[in-house]
């Protein structure tokens, strides 16, 4: 079932395309994250959905109502959409209560009760009702902005990088709190962010934009483990890319023979691993190891709880050293020393890209 549908949405600024043929569906009650690097078009897309801008071409439909058909659009204030901007955009001269109730008619029956209920919903102490925005913390200001957006009971909530101005710990707390509130309210939500971790943890659907085009849309797990191309893979997290030969339900690469769904293909390809799939086992000199391959630690970068270990890989005992080097995340407890031999094992299968192999590896981290 589809609540919001985008079909062939395009937008140009002068001769520069900002969006090109964007199309995907948003299910009712779900949380969708739109991610991409700066300049990918994600904010432009959010503004078109909100009604702040009109597309040049394409259609936007919500709940069966056409909101945009090319440049012909339904005005933003008639769409029933809530919007939380990056900075909250609170009115500095109004109290918390007046900010929250700004979109509610002054003579509305039960207006004050509605404002108090919204404060409870976003977990704001009612004693803050008469404070001004400058008397609140960044997290409290975002809660006020969310309550204000929820006041008119929107059918769709749009969040434009609402946590980017907060420190790391507060971002995580606010992300969880906002997700909880929106889930309880049953409001369909779209989040725009450049933070991959934020998108993967907040949403149940992720859409990736690059250069104004949609590269992939799907569940966070699907996109993280089976990205459509190497650039999407690298954008969503640290990645190891290796050339490989395709076999029967396996690949042969610098890490040995590894299980993989090759789809009946043969020849050369590029494979992907996430660094957390790699496990290192200390080895004594001359010790036999059941791991598919071994390696030598050539560098260690201490990083607190998790450190990075660079390993030069060989295909197995008695074989020549390969030119494969991996950066692996490792617990900082009992880190191997530079020069130590380690067994290398892989958890789970590898992902095979459709594109030809490049022989390229990317450092994780």
UniProtKB/TrEMBL annotation:
The GO terms this record gives for MF are:
ABC-type ferric iron transporter activity; ATP binding; ATP hydrolysis activity
Organism for this UniProt entry: Skermanella stibiiresistens SB22
Q: Which residues cross the membrane?
A: none
Q: Which Gene3D superfamilies match?
A: P-loop containing nucleotide triphosphate hydrolases (3.40.50.300)
- What's this protein's name? Amino acid ABC transporter substrate-binding protein
Query: What does UniProt give as the signal peptide span?
Result: none
Q: Name one GO biological process term.
A: quaternary ammonium group transport
Query: Is-annotated flag, keyword DNA-binding?
Result: no
* Keywords attached to this entry: ATP-binding, Cell inner membrane, Cell membrane, Ion transport, Iron, Iron transport, Membrane, Nucleotide-binding, Translocase, Transport
Top-level taxonomic group: Bacteria
Q: Which Pfam families match?
A: ABC_tran, TOBE_2
